[in-house]
Give the backbone structure.
Amino acid sequence: MLKGKTALVTGSTSGIGLGIAKALARQGANIVMNGFGDVAGPKAEIAALGVQVTHHNADMSRPEEIEAMMAFAAAQFGRVDILVNNAGIQHVARIENFSTERWDAVIAINLSSAFHATRLALPAMLAANEGKGWGRIINVASAHGLVGSPEKSAYVAAKHGLVGLTKVTALENATSGVTCNAICPGWVLTPIVQKQLDAKVAAQGITNEAATEQLLREKEPSMQFTTPDELGELAVFFCSAAGNNVRGVAWNMDGGWVAQ
């Protein structure tokens, strides 16, 4: 379905980003990966799906590095057809104890990076398809883009902001072939969530299994994690013909979290 298209997925060396990158690759999209940690393994997984794949290690807190990444993607594949703004970090503390450095980092990576990548991707998307435009911008927000939780002020603020950015991007491009939507996962067993589980284990002296049950019971009625593969399939839907007029939604895949 996406053969000949290029998808750039930020924060795609693990977790949700890797799941989305693989789902798009299975539909034929060439992939520009971004992120730190192990690159060779995830890159090989995507290459095995029969598409072209490359990687750029832009620090998503730095606008100049995001600009370099977007230029790199254009040089490699002509343009970015699908932009998935997924890069994110977390820090947990009460507001009065939340360091300004941590606040700035969470806002920069979880929110500002999506703005910078979007503003750079839009001109080529709007010029595509003989000027009628074609592009997909998918912002990975969170259930925390729709509801709040204590001790996550920066994360909740950033994700709410990302949902707002999604709506404005969709409205500004509503008469073109460029759509913008947000995915709002509940708990997904990513490295970020595992750190929260580890903190519960250390603080309460309980097992990882008990911490997992406690985490899910607090928020997610389904009592199960959403998987990166499931989120990837939702991204594929947004990129399909069925998603042509899906614009500005914040689609929660959260096991019933925000339905409560």
